[in-house]
Amino acid sequence: MTLREALRDAGWLDGPRVRAYAAMVGLASLAVLWFAWRDAVGSTGSDFLAFWGAGKAVLAGNPAAAYDIATQQAIQTGTGSQGWFVFVNPPPFLFAVAPFGSLPYPLAWIAWTSITYALWAWAGVRAFPRLWPLVLAYPGALVAATHGQNGLLTGALLVAAVTMLAAGRPIRAGAAIGALVIKPHLALLLPFWLAAGRRWSAFIAAGATLAGLLLASWLVFGGETISGYTESWAASGALMAAGGADFLIRMASWYAQLRHHLGEPTAIGGASVLALAMIGMALASWRHFDGDPRASGAAVLAATALAPPYLFNYDLPFLIVPTLWLVEQGLARGFRPYEKLALAGLWFAPYATRAAAFPLEMNLMPLAAFALLALVWTRRALPQGHGPLPS
């Protein structure tokens, strides 16, 4: 066998080796998580400080203080961290973070990371039960876990939404989509997708869940908290306006890379065109995939990594769906030339592109997302009623 054939077919990348490589990545991840926790509870701090500080404010009976900059600075730096973070998520997210405010910060970080990873893993394994080693060791989940961010929680909601819709449970799918009010830009394409597929039950359930969570947060946390959230928009705007090279390179969006290298006007224009193109793709995906919600959903989640202008690598655990959908298709129908190697690279891409961003002065994750979407779009779904995958 020539080197070209070995790369083209990658027959050596078989089931046992893939499981072994996944186990190696998983074990390495434990060490990475220990270092992340050590930094998080030390002077470096972690994004989770904002969630923990907001939870402390809720339990203290002053939920509006979650959005008060001076209060949050005092709470968060009280842990010994030299850095602190503004809480900018919508008020319904306070329901999720409030219980963690009852724990000491080091334990709260572990609990948050463990619980949100478990939710994401549950959703991912339900979606791809035969590919569970690739789910559990997914580097996109590792990146989210090390930051203590909410990408595992939002990833679980996105994965569950597509899986539930494909399983004929539109109300549950819609509820998962509506719960993305905690980070709404990740749901940018989903209303267009549901409407184009005439999944009206899911569409209505998503709207009802969103409205219900907003109403519940107003009733429980009060109008001052809602007002505080609207005032936090100025902090978000200032962060984006003042974002320097380090901030933009960390971001995984097309907008951020264009802005860093070509300036604001080009970035706004390019990001707008891309977002409109991804909306068009979401509208066309049902017809392209003959109404298959699993295939169409895989395409829409790949496009979700391209549509919003504000995105980080820790937001990307949901890319497990298009990545493993392609593996699923390859196992059932045969892999295309070089597809195995491409999928191995794309599986690792959320971590690799983040690690290489500063040396390259560019985050290449948008290019990886383009490649993932192209591979999904050029794969037509299996006929309905196709037999189970080979083990």
Query: Uncertain regions: pLDDT < 50 for 5+ in a row?
Result: 383-391
Label the structural class.
Answer: mainly alpha
Mean pLDDT: 92
Total number of beta strands: 0
Total domain modules: 1
Number of helices: 20
Measured between the Cα atoms of the first and last residue, the distance is 26 Å
Radius of gyration: 21 Å
- Major sheet details: none
Could you say which overall geometry the principal axes of the C-alpha atoms support? Answer: globular
Order of helices and strands: HHHHHHHHHHHHHHHHHHHH
Q: Helical residue percent? A: 55-70%
Q: Which band does the percent of strand residues land in? A: under 5%
Summarize the structure.
This protein is an all-alpha fold.
Written description of the protein model:
By secondary structure, the protein is mainly α. The chain has helices at residues 3-9, 15-40, 48-59, 69-77, 93-97, 105-127, 132-136, 139-147, 151-166, 170-178, 190-196, 200-221, 223-242, 245-250, 254-262, 264-288, 293-304, 320-333, 339-360, 365-377. The chain has one domain (37-377). The chain is 69% helix and 0% strand. The chain is globular, with a radius of gyration of 21 Å. Mean pLDDT is 92; it is low at 383-391.
Per-chain topology:
Layout (H helix, E strand, L loop, with lengths): L2 H7 L5 H26 L7 H12 L9 H9 L15 H5 L7 H23 L4 H5 L2 H9 L3 H16 L3 H9 L11 H7 L3 H22 L1 H20 L2 H6 L3 H9 L1 H25 L4 H12 L15 H14 L5 H22 L4 H13 L14
Keywords:
single chain; 391 residues; mainly alpha; 69% helix; globular
